[in-house]
Amino acid sequence: MNISIVILTYNSQKYLLEVLQSVRFANEVIIIDSGSTDNSLEIANTFNNVKIFHQAWLGFGKQKQFGVEKASNDWVFVLDSDEIFTKKLEEEVLQTIKNPLFKAYKVARLNFFFGKAVTRMGLYPDYNIRLFHKKYAKFNGREVHESIICKEKIGTLQHHFLHYAYESIEQFINKQNKYSSLNPKKNNLLKAIINPYWTFFKLYFIKLGFLEGKNGFIIAKLYAQYTFWKYIK
């Protein structure tokens, strides 16, 4: 069975070589680039299974759906440009699409924050629908925090892929500041005061962030700050 991997790029050279090496098994990799000025496209052009399309930024949901529609195969796996396929996931995906029991599958991702994998705090297994038959599932049109719409029953794969989420605190702050502007909640001063405390308590204590050491405290604190931004903007 053939499969298409869909990847969005924009100045994504840091991990792109590793990402594309991890999906050499796919007969087709669709890259949707929104104006990279680094070496992303040069890296992509060194792979025989890559097809590059240029599209001005539409928002995450529409941009990913644009990529799905460019895929020539029915089975699609959507991967970010900082996400790496593991060998075990590759084997499971290829076996699954030979005799699929479902039209779409949730897949776990192992997130790395500041150089360390995080296995608690609700950040693992961090399931998302990533593998699907494009005739039965599609992305919604949300600009950020997009998701797959599928009316069929959803399956779950056993193995995960790797996600190099944030290398530094500065990167986390910049990205979450941007996301909170794209997807703010209704302005609510009371929630802006109270909800960050709840976010920290939930992540650090209820979801065992304290077992992640220093990283756990930093992550809980940063997500609490993000919660404040959402309600105050």
Question: How would you characterize the overall build of this protein?
Answer:
With 233 residues, the chain is of the alpha/beta class. The chain folds into 2 domains: 4-166, Spore Coat Polysaccharide Biosynthesis Protein SpsA, Chain A (Alpha-Beta Complex), CATH 3.90.550; 169-232, no CATH class. It contains 7 helices and 11 strands. The strands form 2 sheets. Strands 1, 2, 3, 4, 5, 6, 7, 8 and 11 form a 9-stranded mixed β-sheet that branches. Helix 2 (40-44) links the parallel strand 2 (28-33) and strand 3. Helix 5 (169-182) runs parallel beside helix 7 and helix 6 packs antiparallel against helix 7. The N and C termini lie far apart (48 Å). The model has no long low-confidence stretch (mean pLDDT 95).
Brief characterization of the structure:
By secondary structure, the protein is of the alpha/beta class. It has 7 helices and 11 strands.
Largest sheet descriptor: 9 strands, mixed
Total number of helices:
7
State the fourth-level CATH superfamily of the largest domain.
Spore Coat Polysaccharide Biosynthesis Protein SpsA, Chain A
* Mean pLDDT reading: 95
Helix content: 25-40%
- The radius of gyration computed from the alpha-carbon positions, rounded to a whole number of angstroms, is 18 Å
